[in-house]
Amino acid sequence: MLSVLLLSFSPAIWLLLATVLVQLYYAAYYFWPFATRPPEPAPTEAGAEPVSVLVCAHNELDNLRRLLPLLLRQEYPADLEIVLIDDRSDDDTYLYAQQLSQYYPNFRLVTIGRTPDGLSPKKYALTLGIKAARHPQLLFTDADCIPATNQWVQHLAAGFRQPADMVLGYSAYATEPGFLNKLVRFETLLTGAQYLSFAWRGQPYMGVGRNLAYTRAVFTSTKGFASHIRSLSGDDDLLVQDAVAQGARVAVVAEPAAHTLSEPAGTWGGWWRQKRRHLSAGRSYRLADRLRIGNFIGSNLLFYAVSLALLFSRADWIPLAGLWVARTGLVCATYQRLSRRLDDPLPVALLPVLDVVYFFYYLALGMSLFLYRNLRWK
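RESULT FIELD:
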């Protein structure tokens, strides 16, 4: 009887089941073990090396007034240098930096007057900042971020002792009212779950410049940003790609004390432009990484596409409902556990809705990048 029932299912149901099994694999091998791993040990003073924290800013005085004091108050047992790279700002960034340098001997300013034609402004500015930094271990964040705690430097720098040449951290977005904020945070959680858990499994492919660290030796081994210096995006993920190709060891530091916190996009258009810029670098990833990410994204998109088609087939409603219940339980359990582990909670009841909206939004972004590739930078 059971075999007859199974044979009566349409090929679309079997395809839908295959997509769920693919997603189950990612949850069981990457996401759930990463979310339930033991807490990372607290950093100790023993073995702490001097570090330089680099921040690149273009007309971000208000953000710098919030960020720099927090960086200067970081607790770190070894020498800590803060390097501000003023990238062609025409506000009062220079004057503010000069005031700080009078009171904090460990604060330094690197000023960029112009960017050579054809080069990415941020990558050019970061290159000059890295050359000016005094220490070989370099930590990076963005001007519109803040460290979650005054232990951020300690935790992120401790990743070098695993040992590692690069350290990947997690950067969350602030909680605000509205559906867009929840969707932005869901996308951030899902992206973080992928690049952190993949790296934890020995398959690193990207990081985020809001919370990233690497050694000067790694930067030198990749010849800096040379392979993608003309691309506006990729100062973080494409550098990780190049570094891994050169044999760099990558560590993950994902304790809440090591997070950074950013202000999310306040409009759909702002988030659209931001995500277009971030996703544009993906075409330069290694084939294995594109396949690994593509299988996960593609299985989710295919699940929804097949489900829509099956809504018009009354004979398949029962197995369709069963697979939807199973997948919804899988999504809620896995993403809730990840959000707790990364201290980035989202309403459990809203997770299935966010999942649907996100993957259709992702499809629209992919089509947009295929049809219209022009990008803008500040």
